[in-house]
Write a structure and sequence with these properties.
The protein has 213 residues and is an alpha/beta fold. It has helices at residues 13-26, 34-38, 45-52, 59-76, 87-96, 109-119, 142-151, 165-174, 188-193, 205-212, and strands spanning 2-3, 10-11, 82-83, 101-108, 125-131, 159-162, 177-181, 199-200. The protein is globular, with a radius of gyration of 17 Å.
Length: 213
Amino acid sequence: MIFDLDGTLVDSLPGIAASLNRSLSAHALPEHPRAAIRGFVGDGLRTLVQRAAPAGTDAAGIDSLIGVFKADYALTWADGTKAYPGIHGLLIELMKSGFQLAVLSNKTHAFTVEMARGLFPGIHFSEVLGQRDGSPHKPHPAGALQISLTLGAAPENCVVIGDSTIDIETAANAGMKAIGVSWGYHNRARLLAAGAETIIDHPSELPALLALH
């Protein structure tokens, strides 16, 4: 079971939006409503900042915004991030059933590890991977395939679970199954358009769905 993080395991939008707007404000740039920032997330930090910055912002300006965001988010993410209802219980149930669990995110690797470990005490993730310099991020299949290798599982025996079209595309690119979740940041119509064949509306639906297969 390869889980996405933001929008799948955790609702991190409030924390991301607050840090992003503080970073923009520190540079005397316009802030964005949370609803708009919801559409910015999913493709990594640099893309998030590029989408939020005014058109024409140069590379140095983007780098400066990223630096301020990282420093702010490191101190404040816990105030605006929480596990979705039912997720902790789901992970415990899956773990007890013998499933190997992993996390694959386009969030910066250090934040991904800190968040996964901090918000889910007692849950054993066999691998936690975020976005790392020099490594392609989702929907490139490299991270998902690295996880399958670490877990000793053939790609066809792995399932990517996520809220975004990027997760659906990642699974297809890696030769893995995909399950979409409707409680995150992409709506059902976008997931279906991306090719999602299975979408669940609550974490409690996942064990029964797995039992069918």
